[in-house]
From TrEMBL:
This is 4Fe-4S dicluster domain-containing protein. Pfam families: Fer4. Gene3D superfamilies: 3.30.70.3270. GO terms for molecular function: 4 iron, 4 sulfur cluster binding; metal ion binding; NADH dehydrogenase activity. The keyword NADP does not apply. Keywords: 4Fe-4S, Iron, Iron-sulfur, Metal-binding, Repeat. GO terms for biological process: aerobic respiration.
Length: 127
């Protein structure tokens, strides 16, 4: 019974001398590794709204809506449903979707979780 208590006492003394084991995250930001898959961003100028990202998303976090009355196609990314697997980044033909190093996902309003790109809808002139 003495040995476990002595071990705990030794651990407590080492913690006092060496300092805490945990990082002071909110006050000192941590640097994520290079391969970290953080928040996904769209580059609207590169996106052609082809829908490849919508087809490969396993979490159905992407949605393509064609508004025929306005003549626009809307590519929506629902961040709250995203699992950050990177399939959309991999299959985007124009590299319009990228992972960032940002890891703080907290938002004050639910509307802040939706990213979208809106492009003019191309109609077939023959049909």
């Amino acid at each position: 019974m003495k040995k476990p208590k002595l071990r705990e006492l030794g651990e407590a003394i080492r913690a006092i001398i060496e300092g805490p084991y945990t990082a002071k995250f909110p006050y000192v930001p941590s640097v994520p590794p290079e391969s970290y898959r953080g928040i996904i961003v769209f580059y609207e100028d590169r996106c052609i709204c082809c829908g490849a990202c919508v087809q490969v998303c396993p979490a159905n976090a992407r949605e393509m809506i064609d508004d025929l009355t306005k003549g626009v196609r809307r590519n929506i990314h629902h961040q709250e449903a995203c699992i950050y697997c990177g399939q959309c980044v991999r299959y985007c033909p124009n590299e319009a979707i990228k992972h960032t190093q940002e890891y703080d996902l907290a938002k004050l309003k639910r509307e802040g979780y939706e990213n979208f790109v809106e492009k003019e809808l191309a109609y077939c002139e023959i049909c």
